[in-house]
Structures are given as C-alpha cells and as structure tokens.
Amino acid sequence: MDNSDTSPLKREDIWVALGLLTRLPLPARHWDANRPAALAAWAYPLVGFLLGLLAAVLGWLLLALGLPVDMTAAAILLSLTMLTGAMHEDGLADTADGLWGGTTPERRLEIMKDSHIGAYGTIALISGFALRWSALSALMSAGYLWSPLLIAAMASRAAMASLMGALPNARSTGLSKLTGRPGKDAPRIAAGIATLATLLAFGLAGLWPLLFAAAALIVCRTIAQKKIGGQTGDILGATQQITEIAVLGAICALVL
C-alpha cells in the first residue's frame, strides 16, 4: 500500500525546497520520507524570495559603501551563483551543449551528463551573465534594486515548478527523476505566489513581466519536448536562467 503524503501544502516543504535549490547551511530536521520531494515545488518562489532578498541586501550595502553600480551588479550575480551552488548556471550550460550538440534525444541526454563544457555551453553562460548583468546595472542606475531582484528570482523558480508539472522526466535517473513529479496543485500554487508578488510590486503593470515569464516558459517547454521528449534537472536550471533574464528585461522595458 502507498503511504505517500500527497497533501498540497506542508510547512516542511519550504525546508525541502531550500535544501534542493540552495547551498545554505540548514539546521538538521526530520524529513517525511513518504512525501515526494517534488510536492515542495509550490515553495520554490519562496526560496526565490529569500535568495533575491539576500542578494538585494548585499547590493544595498555595496551601493551604500560607494561601490559602482556595475561592480555591484556583478557582485550580486556572484552571490546568487554561490548561494545556489551554480546549479542553474550549470543547467543552462549543459542544456545548450546537449540540445544543440546532439542529433538524437539519446545523444543529447548523453552530452548533458558530460561534465565538460563545450562551445554552446560557454556561449550560453557568457550570454546569460551578460544579459543579467546589463539588466541589473540599468535598473540600479535608475534606482531600482529590491523589486526586480525579488520578482525575477520568484517568477523564474515558479517557472521551474510549472515545467516539472508539464513535462515528464526525460531520463530514468538524475536529480529531476529522484525529485519526482509535483502533480497539478504545487505548480499552480507556485504560479499564484509569483503572480501575487509581481502584482503587489508593480500593480497591473506587473502583467508585463508575467507575460514575458510565461513566454520564456513556453519556449523552454517546447524546445525540451521537441529535443528530448521531457525535462531534466539541467532543463529546469536553464528554464530558471532564461525566465530570470526575460523577467529582468521586461522590468527594464516597464520602468526605464
């Protein structure tokens, strides 16, 4: 008999999500081994809020100390990379190498597992950092720091939850397979949290970055389904990065 706990919301899900998506030193806790880890996907935007908050505090302190905006933006991106163990950046690089370096789904998945980085991955990493850095620099130069970082971090992690629910696992092993599928409730709750936060931050104008986030998610979903027939941990990481870039770009268009 299956004794798995599948209730849509549990407080411990926040700790599970923090353990999955960050490298923060978490206190020892008792985990419910019968509860699938994927059900914690509803809390991904909350993890994004915490990461965005920590990065924004760092940015505020550096700006207060007189550090130039461009260096502060670079420091913010470095802090986010360290807080997450570069897992999303690694996913972006592996996805770029695999999806465009292979000619069959099997070969693409094989390349994505390779620890070496190729030309596509290098270009994706450099482009991703450059786009995020330029957007953050422009926003901070105009006096915007807190809301862009918080909303981009939350919306991009809600996109991960949505993709987990929308596509099957493309391989029978790996982090995404071990985490499982979140069902219908967790992605919807994650999307609701990110949507509410965006509307609170920008009012009805927040529909603009939400539209960009949805478009980025659709693009990532379509490409992943066509190229490998599903999602992996690398695909989820790439989706986070691409959605974050899209949201930051939309906020730039909205407020600058």
UniProtKB/TrEMBL annotation:
The chain crosses the membrane at residues 42-63, 117-139, 145-168, 189-219. It comes from the Bacteria. Pathway: Cofactor biosynthesis; adenosylcobalamin biosynthesis; adenosylcobalamin from cob(II)yrinate a,c-diamide: step 7/7. Keywords: Cell membrane, Cobalamin biosynthesis, Magnesium, Membrane, Transferase, Transmembrane, Transmembrane helix. It catalyses: alpha-ribazole + adenosylcob(III)inamide-GDP = adenosylcob(III)alamin + GMP + H(+); alpha-ribazole 5'-phosphate + adenosylcob(III)inamide-GDP = adenosylcob(III)alamin 5'-phosphate + GMP + H(+). It is found in: Cell membrane. One of its GO terms (molecular function) is cobalamin 5'-phosphate synthase activity. One of its GO terms (biological process) is cobalamin biosynthetic process. It is a multi-pass membrane protein. It holds the Pfam family CobS. Its EC number is 2.7.8.26. GO terms for cellular component: plasma membrane. Its main location: membrane. Its cofactor is Mg(2+). InterPro entries: CobS. Belongs to the CobS family. Joins adenosylcobinamide-GDP and alpha-ribazole to generate adenosylcobalamin (Ado-cobalamin). Also synthesizes adenosylcobalamin 5'-phosphate from adenosylcobinamide-GDP and alpha-ribazole 5'-phosphate. This is Adenosylcobinamide-GDP ribazoletransferase. It comes from Litoreibacter janthinus.
